[in-house]
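name: query_chain
kind: protein
chains: 1
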Amino acid sequence: MNHPILDQIRDLRTELAPGDAAPALVTALADGTAPRPALAELAAQQHRIIASDRRSLLLLATRSADLPVSAWFAALAGARAPRCAPCPASPPPAASARTNSPPGHHWPAARPTRPTSPGSPGSH
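structure:
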């Protein structure tokens, strides 16, 4: 029997399956040709994700305070704390470094994290 939902799942799995080629950004990072703004954006996204994970783990630890698993959630959140610290600004690349920019060009700093307003997702 043919099920449309199962056909859709099969098609999505085929479409989303990893291919033989690595993603372009991964390749550029590996060979040192990734533009600094792309790397800065990736770092900013990771910073937001790790901070969000830490908040979620702390919330789970609080909600399960009367259960033994609470300490486990708190320990996981504590392990993410150092990763939530701001990264020091890096100096512009040396003249001999491989970059995709013209000589004398300075890359802009990473976009700052958007502040959350009370009541918005991600605010506590």
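note: Residues 3 and 93 are 56 Å apart (CA to CA).
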